[in-house]
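queue> holo job accepted (S-adenosylmethionine)
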Amino acid sequence: MEQVTSPSYVARMMKERGLAAKKGLGQNFLVDRNIVGRILENAALDGESWVLEIGPGLGALTGPLAERAAQVVAVEIDRELAAVLREVLAHPRIAIVEGDALEMDWRELLEDMGWRGQPLSLVANLPYYITSPLIMKALESGLPFTSIVVMVQKEVAERMLAAPGSKDYGVLSLAVQYYAEGSLVMKVPRTVFLPAPKVDSAVVRLLPRPPKVSAPRKELFQVIRAAFQQRRKTLRNALKALTVEWGLGLEQLDGALARCGLEPGVRGERLSLEEYSQLTEELLKGV
Ligand code: SAM
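queue> job finished
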């Protein structure tokens, strides 16, 4: 397979095929081989592994992934790129699937391709315009990913890995903590992409594991989403509508907050995942 992670290759392919990078699809192609290497190392693949790649682009990650994995299933929304990839990366261990990764049923797709529960990783240089929904989809998919290694905008990486009390802390941070151990692999300057985006990026690794908290997932995330819907509100005010929906009165909300040792004026951004879990369980006692 040809070495596709170079500025000259990308420029040549675009010119030869009459392609232009589509900004609206987040097309910024990675042209740095060392970063590809770091992403691969962190995905920790072996000859049994299957990889779901979102947005293969011109194949910077796809070929190297196929050299280590049993099978790569790469979902690309851009018809022109999918056609180029099928030709350039024709390889028995690579399946290029054309479509919108956000809309697809990933389990069905993988099973159609022959996946039968082998170790599975998600590896992607994600398109910027749908980073958070794609990460949420990966976390909530119920698929047994052994690792999720993604390149995202630096700001999204900060949100994914934020701790309580910081300005970046929110639903995405809590979802990452609920489903996985997250860590920053490396910061990535904008100059390693063609065309260069306006922001820097970062590679984040998530190692999914069973949740460490006991509140039921659906209600826990209802509480978390309500708490962050209007960040400037106190937690008590932010949760009023939800508790009414659950058939609880204000006294029950106040009682649950008090039993969790939470001050009436506290804001949602101060609470840890464990505190959200405890609060959800206290609220559910009244339902
Ligand atoms: N993996 C390549 C690389 O590292 O050079 C390209 C990464 S580029 C940041 C994102 C890629 O995702 C583009 O090829 C774009 O066409 C594709 N893409 C955008 N939206 C998509 C979607 N909803 N489903 C699948 N692919 C998508």
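queue> The pocket of S-adenosylmethionine is lined by residues 25-30, 54-58, 60-61, 75-78, 81, 100-102, 125, 127, 130 (CB under 6 Å).
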